[in-house]
Amino acid sequence: MTAMLLETEDLTVRFGGHVAVDAVSCGFRAGELTAIVGPNGAGKTTYFNLISGQIAASAGRVRLAGRDITLLNVSERCRLGLGRAFQLTNLFPGLSVLENLRLVVQARRGRGFSLLRLAGSDREVTREAEELLARLRLEALAEQPVSELSHGNQRKLEVALLIALDPLVYMFDEPTAGMSLDEAPVVLDLIAGLKARTDRTILLVEHKMDVIRSLADRIIVLHNGALAADGPPEAVMASAVVQEAYMGRELEDV
Amino acid sequence: MIRLFSGDGPRSTILALILIVIGLALAFAPFLFPGVRALETAARICIFVVLAASYDLLLGYTGIVSFAHTMFFGLGAYGVALASTHMGRGFTALGVGTLAGLAAAVALALVIGLFSLRVRAIFFAMITLAVASAVTVLASQLSAVTGGEDGLVYQIPRALGPAMRLDREIAGVTITGKILNYYVVFAISLVLFLLMLRIVNSPFGRVLQAIRENDFRAEAIGYRVVRYRVTATCLSAGFAALAGSLWAIWLRYVGPGTTLSFEIMLDILLMVVIGGMGTIWGAALGATLMVLAQSYLQNLMALAAGATEALPILSRLLDPDRWLLWLGVLFILSVYFFPTGIVGRLRARAAR
Ligand SMILES: Nc1ncnc2c1ncn2[C@@H]1O[C@H](COP(=O)(O)OP(=O)(O)OP(=O)(O)O)[C@@H](O)[C@H]1O
Ligand SMILES: [Mg+2]
């Protein structure tokens, strides 16, 4: 068995009396794409926030490649390989599309602290950003300020920023929400392409069952903050606990 | 030249023309506008362009509000004044004073930044306000050292003083030490300005903009946001201190009113906002306009008041003593009509 790339152990957070994530213990192997499902308010985004460090855990640990990162801050965790895309688009609105991507590539390469070079002069950084733009079919918008993009294109860029970060752990939070039917496949293809990198692990919060069925190697179900099911897609989807987690509501598409 | 140097041109023909006119006017000020008053104004413009640009580095590029910018300006100025007072006139004193002021400003910025930028941006604003007020009070109370409210008058090297005259005339103007002094101020200001333009267009400058736009995401893609903010604060303080040293070399006098006062802090804020935040060019434009307005608005109003003597109310409104009122009106109008500053407005026009 391969060792776990990412592990959470009894990970818990309480907001006042409300337990948003309840002692979740779960490991994620390299080369695996895990879909995380659960009804609205189940704690999926909060679970991500605990892993990437946006909120501090009330109890429990997070380990990345065996190293305890529970006490590290967001940017330290990021530099160790935890990458995160957000459910609510979270970009640099006044800067251009290309500049948004360049900033990520530059961060990963640790080139932010040079004061006397010219921003555009780092060819490698620019080339990498432009390649990704082409894969997203956003080349024509390279110089547009992000604030002027359509919602769908902002969602695409949100995903692209995470891919540009090239982390060990990819965390996608409903990446295709709000995208049109012809935009979503571009993004899903990009995510599927990441599965070729067998030294990485991918966590994907997603409601659409057809997407999960085609991409996921494994599903975990969160319900009221607790881990309610964990296993191969067919088994989990068929289980009673999923039906209950969705409170009688059928999963989308079925 | 500018494009090659910073990759960030004015990006608007009108703006480029205005900036070229300002640049040329400053470069040839002693010959184009003879007279003490004009030269004073030109030197003031040079120095305030640097000061406003250094504030824009913080406010416009990094999104940090500081009320301590005049304190850093003052540290540079008092550095030169104290060194010249205690070491006697000479270039060594100017050098030592400038470096000491620079070091003090950067060190203080580092302490304030490390202490408060970890918390919240608003906390930083409050701390700078408190520290700046404390320093102003100290400067007026410690009269044995700083000359108190009267400030310090000292001598600078003869070569830069008005008494020094070359036997030569250029374009009908006798070259005095004052004119040499002006060119020292002009050249150093130009270098500092171009350096800041370069810094904001570097990879580092882009990170500052990213932090201003969305610090949460900047953190999430792995930037050490606090470290960038603190560095920007120190840089900004350093440039302000250098501007202060130039100011001290030019004026041969330093006092709380000319360096530390809250009015100057407001002036800087207005310069940056009127010119256009986050553009550096805007700081140059804003500083030029403000200094011109401060120097000549009163004259203009005296003329207007004279011309309208027959109309009592208008004439009284145009009384030179009301110049501050009119400056306020100008400010409100400019913020209303150009919310992105003059530079933002001109660039938007050019982009259409
Ligand atoms: N910072 C916070 N303070 C207080 N309560 C919070 C906070 N963040 C999340 N919660 C609560 O925790 C619960 C889980 O929220 P979370 O956003 O993780 O759900 P989710 O599974 O991502 O839902 P969705 O599918 O709607 O995105 C919710 O009840 C939410 O109100
Ligand atoms: Mg969510």
TrEMBL record, chain A:
<dbReference type="InterPro" id="IPR017871">
    <property type="entry name" value="ABC_transporter-like_CS"/>
</dbReference>
<keyword id="KW-0813">Transport</keyword>
<dbReference type="GO" id="GO:0005524">
    <property type="term" value="F:ATP binding"/>
</dbReference>
<dbReference type="GO" id="GO:0016887">
    <property type="term" value="F:ATP hydrolysis activity"/>
</dbReference>
<dbReference type="GO" id="GO:0005886">
    <property type="term" value="C:plasma membrane"/>
</dbReference>
<feature type="domain" description="ABC transporter">
    <location>
        <begin position="6"/>
        <end position="249"/>
    </location>
</feature>
<dbReference type="InterPro" id="IPR003593">
    <property type="entry name" value="AAA+_ATPase"/>
</dbReference>
<keyword id="KW-0067">ATP-binding</keyword>
<dbReference type="InterPro" id="IPR027417">
    <property type="entry name" value="P-loop_NTPase"/>
</dbReference>
<keyword id="KW-0547">Nucleotide-binding</keyword>
<keyword id="KW-0378">Hydrolase</keyword>
<protein>
    <submittedName>
        <fullName>Amino acid/amide ABC transporter ATP-binding protein 1 (HAAT family)</fullName>
        <ecNumber>3.6.3.-</ecNumber>
    </submittedName>
</protein>
<dbReference type="InterPro" id="IPR003439">
    <property type="entry name" value="ABC_transporter-like_ATP-bd"/>
</dbReference>
<dbReference type="Pfam" id="PF00005">
    <property type="entry name" value="ABC_tran"/>
</dbReference>
<dbReference type="InterPro" id="IPR051120">
    <property type="entry name" value="ABC_AA/LPS_Transport"/>
</dbReference>
From TrEMBL, chain B:
<dbReference type="InterPro" id="IPR001851">
    <property type="entry name" value="ABC_transp_permease"/>
</dbReference>
<keyword id="KW-1133">Transmembrane helix</keyword>
<feature type="transmembrane region" description="Helical">
    <location>
        <begin position="45"/>
        <end position="71"/>
    </location>
</feature>
<feature type="transmembrane region" description="Helical">
    <location>
        <begin position="300"/>
        <end position="318"/>
    </location>
</feature>
<feature type="transmembrane region" description="Helical">
    <location>
        <begin position="230"/>
        <end position="250"/>
    </location>
</feature>
<keyword id="KW-0812">Transmembrane</keyword>
<dbReference type="GO" id="GO:0015658">
    <property type="term" value="F:branched-chain amino acid transmembrane transporter activity"/>
</dbReference>
<feature type="transmembrane region" description="Helical">
    <location>
        <begin position="270"/>
        <end position="293"/>
    </location>
</feature>
<keyword id="KW-1003">Cell membrane</keyword>
<feature type="transmembrane region" description="Helical">
    <location>
        <begin position="91"/>
        <end position="115"/>
    </location>
</feature>
<feature type="transmembrane region" description="Helical">
    <location>
        <begin position="324"/>
        <end position="346"/>
    </location>
</feature>
<protein>
    <submittedName>
        <fullName>Amino acid/amide ABC transporter membrane protein 2 (HAAT family)</fullName>
    </submittedName>
</protein>
<dbReference type="GO" id="GO:0005886">
    <property type="term" value="C:plasma membrane"/>
</dbReference>
<keyword id="KW-0472">Membrane</keyword>
<feature type="transmembrane region" description="Helical">
    <location>
        <begin position="122"/>
        <end position="142"/>
    </location>
</feature>
<dbReference type="Pfam" id="PF02653">
    <property type="entry name" value="BPD_transp_2"/>
</dbReference>
<feature type="transmembrane region" description="Helical">
    <location>
        <begin position="180"/>
        <end position="200"/>
    </location>
</feature>
<dbReference type="InterPro" id="IPR043428">
    <property type="entry name" value="LivM-like"/>
</dbReference>
<feature type="transmembrane region" description="Helical">
    <location>
        <begin position="12"/>
        <end position="33"/>
    </location>
</feature>
